[in-house]
Amino acid sequence: LQRMLSMAVEVDRSPTCSSRKIADDIFPFILNIPLRSQREALLNTMESQLLRCRLLELLFQHSCDVPTTSSMSLDKILYFLSHSSVLPQFQDETATWQRWDEMLQYLSLLLMSYQTFPLAEHLRSSLSDRMDLIVQKAKPRLQDSDDISQLDIQLKMNDFISRMQEALGQPLPLQIQEKLFMLQ
Known about the structure:
- The protein is mostly helical and 184 residues long.
- The chain has one domain.
- 67% of the residues lie in helices and 0% in strands.
């Protein structure tokens, strides 16, 4: 299935458009996956970084009270950090800190997926155009919203940590602290 999904994204003239269509079709099924381990297995084994990024973007858009319409960028990931909440569908008998842990896991996965496709592999281009770009050794274009400062990151992280500590009502578990450090 993962290989077929990856090929479906790749063969289209516009991988960005095809990944959006496929993600829109798959997204309702992801919301109905009952176990975290199953959701993570699906997302971690996804061969198409572009499709994984789009699915995670939809997941975070769904968890925001005020979704943003901006295109995917580092700034948008910071927006998700500030405005996302734990998804209600995933609130089963697991502890609150584990739901925050899952959210941090998906934020890290989104960041890794985003960094892979626009910055390294020209995956926004069709396969034939991508070959030309690689031959020309063209550098991928950064978006204006990818230009974020260390201060932006620090402020958003501090805000996120405050929200999480308030929701948990206790010191952050070591596992969460490690994920926060890695994300930052």
